[in-house]
Amino acid sequence: MPFTITGMDEWVATDTTWEPHSHPTHELLWNRRGASSATIGSRTWAITPSVGLWIPAGVLHSATAPAGTWYRTAHVDVHTTAPLPAEPVAVEVTPLVRLLLERLVDEALSARSRELTEQMVFDLLSPSPHALLVQKPTSALLQPIVTALEARPGDGRTLADWAARLGVSERTVTRAFRAETGQSFGAWQAALRSQHAAILLGSGLPVEEVALRVGYRSASAFGASFRRTTGLTPGRLRGSGLAPGRMPGVGDTVSGSRQSASRSSDCAES
Questions:
Q1: How far apart are CA 89 and CA 43, in angstroms?
Q2: Are 154 and 105 members of one domain?
Q3: Residues 9 and 127 placed together within one structural domain of the fold
Q4: For residues 166 and 144, is the Cβ–Cβ distance under 8 A?
Q5: Is 255 inside any structural domain?
Q6: N or C, which end of the chain has less CB nearby within 10 Å?
Q7: How far apart are CA 54 and CA 173, in angstroms?
Q8: pLDDT at residue number 240
Q9: Does residue 121 sit in the same domain as residue 141?
Q10: 188-229, pLDDT tens digit by residue?
Q11: 83 falls in which pLDDT band (50, 70, 90)?
Q12: 145 is in which domain, residue-wise?
């Protein structure tokens, strides 16, 4: 690597999936516009303009991004002492952190200015309290629930309905969810819905439509749940999205970037 932190950004023209891959560097991944997701093992994080994901070097991960996503990565030299854990973690991407990282794209930056900027980035990076993380249960008992809700997050069946469907008690389902995810069924379902909602909002869909798609009867009920989970209002996240198929234009600076067509695998980026 030519520098301690090397960045790039890319606008995704069509729905894109990156197959499992890893990097020889640490990676900080976040979005300038829209929302995407990254999966490591049985855990999936939603990535937005305000919450990114720190992926340590060598960690196998896959990712998906809908059309119109404008993502950024910062690759960090493994010989540098990083301020974040040696495991994947959601990171708060504040406006100041974004500005500092974008400054590092300038290859003409003096060595001293670069060193100071990199140090400021390291000083400011911290885990986010608003991680949009879903731990996917893997037991045979819970697979019917997981499969149904991943396909249709707005499925309105209750814990009692699912227990009856599986032929077990509500307590058995609750214990299984807590053992595998650390959450109750209700909390896990709310996180899954918020994660799907983030992707839809990032693509520019109206809040009311997103609310219905993920199982809420009103935009206000959806907004309250979404804010509890993410720390953001739906309108704020929706405002960060580019309309599907719209390329960055006037006022959308793409420095050190390239535009992408759909692809299924690319180990150079995330």
A1: 11
A2: no
A3: yes
A4: yes
A5: no
A6: N
A7: 32
A8: 58
A9: no
A10: 999 999 999 999 998 889 999 999 999 998 999 999 988 887
A11: confident
A12: 136-238
- pTM equals 0.84
> For the chain, how long is the longest CA-to-CA vector?
67
pLDDT at 268: 42
The CATH number linked to 184 is 1.10.10.60
Q: Which residues pair with 74 in a beta bridge?
A: 7, 28
Region at 58 (left for phi over 0; alpha for psi -120 to 50; beta for the rest): left
Whether the pLDDT of residue 253 is over 70: the answer is: no
Which pLDDT does position 196 carry in this prediction?
A: 94
Regarding whether 140 and 117 lie in a shared domain, the answer is no
CB 188 within 8 A of CB 181: yes
25 and 101 housed in the same domain: yes
The number of distinct structural domains making up the chain is 2
**Contacts (Cβ under 8 Å, ≥6 apart) of 190:** 225, 228, 229
Neighbouring-strand partners of residue 29: 53, 73
The phi, psi pair for 203, rounded to 5°, reads -85, -5
d(CA 208, CA 253): 30
* 126 assigned to some structural domain: yes
How far is residue 269's CA from residue 216's CA, in Å, rounded to a whole number?
Answer: 36
What mean pLDDT comes out for the span 243-249? 47
Give the count of beta carbons closer than 10 Å to the beta carbon of residue 245: 9
The mean pLDDT value for 110-120 works out to 94
Pairing of strands 70-76, 26-33: antiparallel
For the chain, the straight-line distance linking the first and the last C-alpha, in angstroms and rounded, comes to: 17
270 pLDDT above the threshold of 80: no
Structural contact between residues 15 and 65, judged by C-beta atoms closer than 8 angstroms? yes
Closest CA to 101 of 72, 65, 71: 72
